[in-house]
Write a structure and sequence with these properties.
By secondary structure, the chain is mostly beta strands. It has a single domain, classed as Beta Barrel (Porin), CATH 2.40.160.40. About 5% of the residues lie in helices and about 50% in strands. The protein has 2 helices and 18 strands. The radius of gyration is 20 Å and the shape is globular. About 40% of the residues are buried.
């Protein structure tokens, strides 16, 4: 069964990558709308250069809705990104895990701040601004699914830094786990007085194999065209395929997690992104990421995190809290800084 699932999974990945139009290396560059969706926002994935398709956590809602089906706890994740030239970005996600899977909602926004406005004769006429928003709802479910495992950590998952999530102690088949998920999005962009909205969809699959080996496949931002003034532009649809694995030292003093994604946007060439996280005593995390795409500036990113859940009481409502920071360099354009928090219960 495990071999059959693995073969099916890789076949789906190859078919998705080979879809006509998705392998044109940059042939449609600059022709899509809603490109703010490409900007990394969540702190943990950003520090790992967005190598997150096969990872399981609250921020998976942005990368692969199938991962939500493997979460056994409810959570909140939020982040603030001080982007380039006074542009700011906000993000919040709320996930609820119950016996039939996990449902989630997320919101991201990018605001330009005030911009000098000019008329057709290049004469200043005051200030204007732009805003870009995305709202989404998601659902994920895993198989085999055990209702009594709610609130407990599946032993097949890459070990998270949380210490208050109790592991499953009773016997469970450990040959594989499979999950699927979908998301519905509403994307809205506003330039001065012009507003445009469009609906988009995400879909994803995940497969867990023995030894904490994850594979993930996701198709993001597929939907209709977005009409801006008189012209209609396609969304920056993408296909992502990722793998992830962790490695433990004696007594779990340090846990190394390695993740790698192959990413293909509709309007850009294929690229690879790789991230690593080093967890020390399940309290301090250090992250580094590298991507082969170089749209602007450096290909490197990094960051760190601090887990405060050891300070929480065992029976308290909040079982875990953490804070994270990510640094992404854009070379001559400047550096960007992301601050994030997560809560679980």
């Amino acid at each position: 069964m495990t071999r059959r699932l693995t073969a099916i999974f890789f076949s789906c990945a190859l078919l998705a990558a080979a879809r006509p139009g998705l392998l044109r290396a940059g042939a449609d560059a600059g022709t899509t709308a809603a490109n703010f969706l490409k900007i990394p926002v969540a702190a943990i994935p950003s520090a790992m250069s967005d190598a997150y398709t096969a990872m399981v956590g609250p921020d998976s809602i942005l990368y692969n809705p199938a991962a939500l089906g493997l979460l056994s706890y409810s959570s909140f994740s939020g982040a603030h990104n001080q982007y380039l030239e006074g542009i700011s970005q906000e993000y919040a996600a709320l996930l609820y895990s119950f016996r039939y899977g996990t449902v989630g909602a997320a919101f991201t926004s990018v605001a330009s701040g005030k911009i000098d406005a000019y008329d057709a004769d290049d004469m200043p006429i005051g200030k204007t601004s732009t805003s870009h928003r995305m709202m989404m709802v998601s659902y994920g479910r895993s198989w085999p699914h055990f209702n009594e495992d709610a609130g407990r950590l599946d032993p097949m998952l890459i070990t998270p830094s949380w210490t208050k999530v109790e592991p499953v102690t009773s016997f469970r088949p450990r040959s594989y786990r499979f999950s699927a998920g979908v998301s519905i999005k509403k994307i809205t962009e506003k330039l001065d007085e012009e507003t445009s909205s469009v609906q988009a969809y995400d879909a994803g699959l995940m497969l867990l194999l023995p030894g904490h080996f994850h594979m993930g496949l996701a198709a993001l931002n597929f939907g209709g065209g977005q009409k801006i003034v008189k012209d209609t532009f396609r969304l920056p649809s993408s296909v992502r395929f990722g793998v992830a694995k962790d490695f433990h030292t004696m007594n779990d003093v340090m846990i190394f997690t390695l993740a790698s994604d192959a990413v293909k946007y509709r309007d850009t060439a294929y690229y690879n992104t790789t991230g690593v996280e080093v967890d020390v005593m399940r309290m301090f995390q250090f992250r580094l990421g590298y991507k082969t795409s170089k749209d602007a500036g450096s290909r490197l990113s990094g960051g760190f995190g601090l887990n405060f859940d050891r300070l929480a009481e065992k029976d308290s409502l909040v079982h875990g809290m953490r804070a994270d920071y990510a640094f992404v360099d854009y070379g001559d354009l400047g550096a960007t800084h992301r601050l994030g928090i997560q809560l679980i219960w």
